Write a sequence for this structure.
């Protein structure tokens, strides 16, 4: 029988759908837009049940500072999950946005932090795949696809969070090199990355440009580059977060990504795609919140009957279901538009905003349904999901930023 790792890595035409795994009984099944989603979901469920479920709680409870799970990450890559959307010629599967986000939805169902581990590589590789030259693509994408290289998307700074255009990091031209100075923070995998897709302002000798550019920092062993793991995160602990300082770090001028001064545009296009991916994380978490709530409501006894018989519980589960399915519709719409090559700034913001806030609602209701058994992590995963969800409304643009994007798109 074909293993999960082999199946996900094979060309899509070779994959078969034999129905859900036997131990998926009780898991609610999402609507299918394209039959290929069933194939991806089946193999992702198989993989997660074998490799993610047994260790997700353990990775969440490791001592600080958290250590990046290199072997776990490499196994994700070998299964084809990290590189599923990368081009086949660079070691990926060339998967569609719809299939990839269906995959992330399932991974998030089992462990949102594992989904984030994979998604960070897609985030960092996206600008290289879309705006890099052929030499850069061949050099950087295949190692990331194999899990041998950990890339990071270095945009956020201490004074440039939601105001991403306020970049203070500089790259001063010096012969064949740029000399980089500045600081980045809240960078996923920034504490261990082998390369940074770095956003900065270039000074080519005629004064610092106010337009943002993108360069690839691939020599992370230089003495001027220092970094640390940020400790005591609320959730998503398996995917580590870093702070990086650049002091006179040398980067070849050949590592300029795309055109000078186009970096902000590259970042925004990348974030459009990434926001749809975050929506998939939210949908996956909300899906798990619903299934856990249904299972608990049917088995937990109160007042001489299962609490599923109580109208208050029934209404909470109905509300969870409504938000989950609404979020899923927005996710699939945005994914299909990405596959069609359409501009998705509006739809990506709508999907991310609604899906992540829906996830907040769903896991909060799940906590209420489970009561003390949800609040105490010893008894199950509701407490962990509650913590993992919160960042979804912050990274790749806060909910407030998404509302601004939506309003500006509609009122222009």
């Amino acid at each position: 029988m074909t293993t999960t790792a082999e199946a996900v890595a094979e060309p899509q035409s070779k994959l078969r759908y034999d129905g859900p795994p036997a131990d998926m009984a009780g898991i609610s099944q999402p609507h299918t837009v394209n039959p290929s989603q069933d194939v991806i979901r089946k193999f992702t469920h198989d993989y997660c049940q074998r490799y993610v479920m047994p260790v997700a709680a353990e990775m969440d409870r490791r001592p600080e500072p958290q250590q990046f799970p290199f072997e776990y990450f490499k196994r994700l890559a070998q299964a084809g999950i990290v590189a599923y959307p990368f081009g086949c010629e660079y070691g990926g599967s060339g998967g569609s946005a719809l299939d990839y986000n269906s995959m992330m939805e399932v991974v998030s169902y089992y462990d949102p932090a594992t989904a984030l581990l994979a998604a960070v590589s897609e985030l960092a590789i996206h600008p290289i795949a879309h705006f890099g030259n052929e030499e850069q693509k061949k050099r950087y994408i295949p190692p990331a696809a194999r899990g041998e290289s950990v890339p990071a998307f270095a945009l956020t700074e201490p004074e440039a969070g939601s105001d991403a255009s306020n970049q203070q990091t500089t790259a001063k031209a010096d012969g064949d090199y740029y000399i980089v100075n500045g600081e980045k923070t809240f960078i996923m995998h920034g504490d261990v990355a082998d390369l940074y897709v770095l956003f900065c302002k270039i000074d080519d000798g005629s004064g610092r440009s106010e337009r943002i550019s993108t360069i690839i920092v691939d020599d992370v062993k230089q003495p001027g580059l220092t970094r640390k793991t940020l400790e005591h995160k609320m959730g998503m602990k398996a995917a580590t977060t870093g702070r990086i300082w650049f002091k006179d770090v040398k980067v070849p001028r050949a590592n300029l990504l795309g055109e000078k001064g186009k970096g902000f545009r590259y970042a925004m296009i990348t974030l459009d795609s990434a926001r749809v991916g975050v929506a998939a994380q939210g949908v996956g978490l909300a899906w798990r919140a619903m299934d856990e709530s249904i299972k608990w409501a049917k088995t937990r006894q109160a007042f001489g009957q299962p609490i599923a018989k109580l109208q208050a519980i029934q209404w909470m589960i109905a509300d969870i279901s409504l938000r989950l399915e609404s979020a899923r519709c927005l996710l699939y719409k945005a994914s299909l538009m990405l596959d069609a090559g359409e501009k998705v700034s509006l739809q990506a913001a709508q999907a991310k905003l609604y899906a992540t806030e829906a996830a907040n609602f769903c896991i909060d209701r799940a906590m209420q349904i489970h009561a003390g058994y949800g609040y105490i992590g010893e008894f199950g995963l509701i407490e962990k999901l509650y913590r993992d969800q919160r960042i979804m409304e912050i990274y790749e643009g806060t909910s407030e930023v998404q509302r601004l994007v939506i309003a500006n798109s509609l009122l222009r």
Summary: The CA atoms of residues 26 and 112 lie 20 Å apart. Residues 264-411 form a domain with the Butyryl-CoA Dehydrogenase, subunit A; domain 3 fold (CATH 1.20.140.10).
